[in-house]
Specification:
With 484 residues, the chain is mainly alpha-helical. The protein is 73% helix and 2% strand. It contains 18 helices and two strands. The protein has helices at residues 2-17, 19-43, 50-59, 64-77, 82-92, 96-116, 126-139, 143-148, 150-181, 192-207, 211-235, 245-262, 265-273, 280-317, 320-342, 356-372, 378-426, 459-468, and strands at 430-434, 472-476. A two-stranded parallel ribbon has the order 1-2. It holds the Pfam family DUF6056.
């Protein structure tokens, strides 16, 4: 009996010392840490601007069907992003904490989806997962609006996660079919009938999320299918038809979703109220120039990192043919990034946050080039480790400083909300509240951009007045405010 116990202890010790077990443990801990860090920032982000307008509208719905009716009206009069806006409407029916948890889960899911779309990495590659998180945190376009702000997160973070989920699943299916065709002993996708039926549903959702990002997702899916069919035909290794039913239905669903969104009557109505200085060919040239400047503003440093890594991979592979064969995935994602950005030439005046999805595609490309840099030479192994280490150090100080400022902004928003709720209960008609102190601004909070103004006619003041039921809300400087 004692001998059996000793063998069990030895076996457990070997399990702990097993390299893969250790990598899996560190990877799971890094995923947990990623959730905790983003959850804290979600909790410290109050409801702002459009959250108030939509929340007031949602509160007037007496049933789920009325919520869909509200969204149909918006589809007909303002925008076609119905999937993302329905997600927002359902969240606004619940306590904000529920959104904080769900949004943190989706953020981690998005980083995992980026990770899963990178090839040639090790199993449980924690450094690669850390790099993904660092790039999204440091270079995510208007992070405060696209990830933390409730309305913006539902439109951009959740939309990007749905789009990338479809791409990831589609690519996984292609790899399974490719492995089956090469005689690797692996079957194609399991339950192909279910894939044929349910993949187009996810495809519709992915196509119906965000105009340029959904279009970029469709483009990437088409490119993956093209190279899959090309390689099957070139190798002549597969038996039977290379194109499976689920491949067609998935793409059709994705295309339908994109068409339904783009052709929304509300898009045409909104386009009519947007004015431009130039029209015709000159107008498109002006848009192209604006997009180029936006790419520089949002992605210059990330592009520099990606180009440097790409050049290193090129010199290691010694030829364009070898580079294409090994790093095609990164090149395709970089191409889709550019296409997603410049597709905005069709839009009169895109918001900065419209580039968020394109930034996710570029992040995949950069991480792919990072992984493709061979570590056989000590100098490149040191470079890769050093890059992650320096970014971790920068992000540590940034997170601590920004977290403190987020807490201060949250405190002032919370104090003001409590005061406004109290005045609403008292039946006040015209209310004056303090604006934020001017010392807490951080890139991870949209609090100042979404703050009230002295003018009661300012649209954010109107949002607060509508939400709480006042005739007007006016702002005054925080200094000298003594009511609380």
């Amino acid at each position: 009996m004692k001998e059996i116990s000793e063998r069990k202890k030895v076996s457990e010790w070997k399990g702990i010392r097993d390299p893969e077990t250790g990598r899996r443990l560190f990877f799971c801990l890094s995923v947990l840490a990623a959730f905790v860090l983003i959850f804290i920032f979600n909790v410290l982000t109050p409801m702002m601007t459009d959250d108030l307008f939509y929340s007031k509208t949602v509160s007037e719905a007496s049933s789920v069907w009325e919520l869909f009716g509200q969204e149909y009206e918006q589809y007909m009069t303002w925008t076609g992003r119905s999937v993302c806006h329905m997600i927002l409407r359902f969240f606004l029916l619940t306590d904000k904490m529920f959104f904080n948890v769900a949004n943190s889960v989706v953020f981690v899911l998005l980083t995992l989806l980026i990770y899963w779309n990178v090839e040639h990495k090790k199993k449980y590659d924690t450094p690669v997962f850390l790099l993904v998180n660092l790039l999204v945190w440091m270079f995510g376009v208007v992070f405060r609006q696209t990830v933390l702000w409730e309305t913006g997160a539902c439109n951009y973070l959740w939309g990007s996660a749905i789009i990338l989920s479809f791409i990831t699943l589609y690519r996984y299916g292609l790899k399974r079919e490719s492995a089956s065709g090469q005689g690797a002993g692996k079957p194609g996708v399991r339950h192909p009938v279910l894939w044929t039926v349910f993949l187009p549903i996810l495809g519709v959702l992915a196509g119906w999320c965000n105009e340029n990002t959904s279009g970029g997702g469709l483009l990437m899916t088409l490119l993956c299918l093209f190279f899959y069919l090309y390689e099957r035909k070139r190798d002549s290794a597969g038996s039977g038809h290379a194109l499976k039913p689920w491949m067609a239905t998935g793409l059709i669903g994705n295309g339908i979703g994109l068409a339904v969104m783009v052709l929304a009557p509300g898009n045409a109505i909104r386009a009519q109220v947007q004015e431009e200085e130039h029209s015709g060919l000159l107008g498109y040239m002006a848009r192209f120039q604006k997009i180029t400047l936006a790419v520089r503003e949002n992605f210059l440093l990330l592009l520099i990192i990606g180009i440097l890594l790409f050049i290193i991979v090129y010199y290691q592979k010694k030829s364009w043919k070898a580079l294409w064969a090994y790093s095609r995935n990164g090149i395709l994602w970089a191409f889709v990034f550019l296409a997603t950005c410049y597709a905005l030439v069709l839009t009169p005046e895109p918001q900065a946050r419209a580039y968020f999805g394109a930034g996710i595609f570029l992040t995949i490309a950069v991480v792919q080039f990072f992984v493709d840099v061979s570590e056989k030479e000590v100098v490149f192994a040191s470079l890769k480790t050093g890059l992650i280490s320096v970014m971790l150090l920068i992000m540590f100080f940034t997170y601590m400083d920004s977290g403190a400022n987020l807490a201060r902004i949250y405190r002032e928003y919370h104090e003001r909300d409590v005061y406004l709720a109290q005045k609403a209960e008292e039946g006040a008609a015209d209310v004056t509240v303090p604006m934020l102190r001017p010392d807490f601004e951080t890139k991870y909070s949209d609090g100042y951009n979404s703050d009230i103004r002295e003018d009661p006619g300012y649209w954010i003041n109107v949002a607060y007045a509508t939400y709480y039921g006042f005739n007007s809300v006016s702002g005054v400087p925080r200094e000298g405010w003594t009511d609380y």
